Amino acid sequence: MPEPSSSPKARPSLTEGPITKTLILFSLPILLGNVLQSLNGSINTIWIGKYLGEVALAATSNANIIMFFLISSIFGIAMAAVILIGQNLGAKKVQEAKKVVGTSTVFFLVLSIIVALLGWIFSTTILDWMNTPPDVKEFAVTYTRIMFAGVPFMFGYNLIMAILRGSGDAKTPFYFLLLSAILDVALNPLLIQGMGPFPKMGIAGSAVATFIAQLVSFVLLIAYLYKKKYFLRITKEDIPLLRIDWTIIRTLIQKGLPMGLNMVVVSLSNLMLVHLVNAYGSESTAAFGVAMQISSYVQMPAMAIGGAVTSMAAQNIGAGKWERVNRITWTGVGVNILMTGLIVAVLHLFNREVVSFFLPPEGKAIDIGVHINNITLWSFIIFGVFNVVAGVVRSAGSVVFPLIVAFVALLLVRIPLATVLSHKYGFDVIWWSFPVSFSVAASLNLLYYRFGKWKQARMMASKT
Question: Where are the bilayer-spanning segments (predicted)?
Answer without folding.
Answer: 65-85, 106-127, 139-160, 172-191, 203-226, 259-277, 297-318, 330-350, 370-392, 399-417, 429-449
